[in-house]
Amino acid sequence: MTKILGPKVLDARDIPPQLPLRPASEVMRLRRMGAAFPTRLSFLRTLMRVLAKEDVQVSRPIWEIDADGFGHAVYSLNLGGYTYSLVAISTDLPADMRTDRVIATAWDTAYVLFDGVPGPDDIKRIVADAPKQEMSRYAPTDLVLSRANKSVRLFDHVVSALRTGRQPDRDMIRDVGYLMRTTAVYGNGKFGIADRARIAGRPHLGGPFAAEMLTVWLIRGFTHDLVEHVGGGTLERKLKRHLGIGNSTGLGMAPFLVSHPLLLDAWMQVRETALARVRAIPALSSNQIERLYELTTRAAQHLSEWSVPDKIAADRIDTLRREWPMVAAHMTPELLLASNPMDALWTRCCKFSIDTQELLLALMLESFGELIDGLTDCMSTPFEPQLDPSMDCTALSDLVARDWDWATKTDFEQEKNCAQFWYVSEEKLEPRLGLRHEEPGADLESPLDIARQVSNMAADVPHSGSVAAFLRKYPQHRTAVRRVQTLATYPYSEIRDNLICETCLPIDLLRCKLAFFGAAKFDPKSDRWTRITLCQGAPLFDELDAADDWWLPTFET
Amino acid sequence: MSFSRNEIAALVTRAARGAGVALGHAEDFGAAVAQLPTAADFESVLGQLDGPFDVTVAEGPPLQLRGPIIMILPMAIDAILAGEQTVVVGAQGALAQAYLSRAKASTGSEMMLANGVLRFADAADHPLASGPIDLPKDVVSYLTYFAKATYVPASEASRLSGAGAGLTDND
Questions:
Q1: Residue B165: its chain A contacts at CB < 8 A?
Q2: Do the Cβ atoms of A181 and A73 come closer than 8 Å?
């Protein structure tokens, strides 16, 4: 008799053990979010693994760049049965027009990631429109819109060196780390480009910002080709690999984490689950121990190569440099060969600074791809926050009492607790942060004051009746109620800090999101502006067979 | 001019905020309008942000809501989900149906609006819209007018305090 096998049912043996996740009350604080490091779960790392697994080949069917480096080029690749093409345009930008700010009106280069193979008319349209960026409109076949400015000093130096048959100065390559900086990478429907829904269901592009990360990686390759073309020479492979793509990030990215709570929760839950799994590892092999030592040394080297002028950031790096050897000192053979070594290491290192803890987290995840990489499938979500109007007001009040004391205990009448306000300037719609008591515009404040909104709502909630009835009387509290209900189900969806207080540092929001992208070498220029590097150490177009060992790359790797 | 659905939702939400609509209702309005199936349906947006946004409530039963769609449709859907059998709203048309499409997508609940009365339905045809839309010029102008009301006027001081101010990018 033939035995008919039914579908495999997951049981406890299939799910790796894990310890409890770190509580959201600890993780979702700005200071800790602002200490995040890139991990192997970041979107760029995930993409690179996919490109390697799919054996993606990048071609360059069009190269119409003149001797001075101006013109356009097209790069294409096939992924998951679809072709994607980067159309890159390089134009001659006067130095006095070069700014990385949102209010810029011209850039050194402009890009579109095109869905398919662009025909002559598509290329003509994109070459004409992309340099105008936000001032133009785009087609649904345009998936991502971006622009980048040269790192002028380094770009010119590399060109000069190559023209004389030399390689560029290694210290400059190490210290700058990129030939160009993107200043915006737009996706998901902005300015008429395709909605994310167009590609979300396609193989390998469903992950968060996958199309944007693909675009950035292709742009990086273009910058290498461009400098070699203008310089008339070939960069040493190791130097080229160290040249990533810079990025200047300001306040535009900050509201995203507030306006996409379920996505934020997904990212955090995945990362914390990964940590919980690694901490639950019962024992390590000798290979795994060796790998930990190797990565610890690499992290130390990375810290030694990471120098920034901003005082707050520099102090944090100094703390990391001071504490990291102490972390390493805990990684004795005795500890690593004992049972539950990763949890033992984690527990012993909780006494160190927040920055060191978050670096250790990234280190701990790095060695255990087989255990955690699959979790990245859970980093995107199709869901939106929902309101449950049938909830009783008493239950709503209970949720506020349980989850929101960090908001309701704040006295927003005190100036220090509402000192700042987020807004959008009429000037090219640049997001900005103002001082409420010193400058105009607070009456047009953007609604990022979540803590205050919930606090105000909590004061009006009655002791009985449904949420539906409450919101008929108080429609102004609709968003606040939705956020309270959302947090009850998605504990990592809320940044548990007052985003309008005088001590709020927007850069903490930026760094958190950028770390999830895979950015490193954070170089804050102020509390609301930072440069970072993406793809530094990442495989070049023809190196995808060695695609995954570039966490915290160092110049000597 | 072709707009993506995400762009429509963002513009409409901002426009509603600019018109003085409560944030949560502005968000729901943006999400609903982004569901309008055809360009012609978007003409129904015109006038929706003119105000006032007062709502008259008669608790009934049946519950009766009178006021602009942007306020009463979310309240009516809330009431049905909270246990009301019917809600009298007096609303109809593509925009009202778009709210029901969103409600179905987000809650799985089918609702029907017939003769100005909202109730649960066994089945209703509320597909989610997708793909870009060529918005009528008058609708774009209307929404842009209100959206601009959320922007703080440019000033030298504001520019100087913006991210990246005072730095050189020619390094």
A1: 101
A2: no
Largest CA distance in chain B: 70
Phi, psi of A285, deg, nearest 5: -85, 170
Which residues on chain B are in Cβ contact (under 8 Å) with A526?
Answer: 163-164
One-letter-per-residue 3-state SS of A329-393: HHCCHHHHCCCCHHHHHHHHHCCCCHHHHHHHHHHHHHCCHHHHHHHHHHCCCCCCCCCCCCCEH
| Residue B149, both tokens | 């009301």
Mean pLDDT of A200-226: 96
Q: How far apart are CA A337 and CA A171, in angstroms?
A: 39
| A436-466 tens-digit pLDDT | 999 999 999 999 999 999 999 999 999 999 9
Measured CA distances, A110 to A90, A97, A219, A486 (Å): 7, 15, 10, 39
In what order do the strands lie in the sheet containing A82-90? A59-65, A71-79, A82-90, A109-115, A142-150, A178-186, A244-249, A529-534, A520-526
Chain B interface mutation, best of A141, A437, A478, A525, highest count of B Cβ atoms under 10 Å: A478
Choose between A340 and A545: higher pLDDT.
A340
Instruction: Give tens-digit pLDDT for A73-94.
Output: 999 999 999 999 999 999 999 8
In this model, does residue A273 exceed pLDDT 90? Answer: yes
A471 vs A462: CA distance, rounded Å:
11
Identify residue A203 by its one-letter amino acid code: P
Contact at CB, B22 and A475, closer than 8 angstroms: yes
CB A356 within 8 A of CB A327: yes
Phi, psi dihedral angles at A422 (to 5 degrees): -90, 140
Question: Phi and psi (nearest 5°) for A115?
Answer: -85, 95
pTM: 0.94
> What are the backbone dihedrals phi and psi of residue A189, each rounded to the nearest 5 degrees, phi first?
85, -5
Chains A, B: CB contacts within 8 A come to 183
Q: What is the pLDDT of residues B143-161, one digit of tens each?
A: 999 999 999 998 766 666 6
Convert the pLDDT of each residue in B95-128 to its tens digit: 999 999 999 988 888 999 998 999 999 876 667 7
From the list A40, A33, A92, the residue with the least C-alpha distance to A372 is: A40
Alpha-carbon distances, residue B87 vs A222, A469, A522, B78, B94 (angstroms):
59, 13, 55, 10, 18
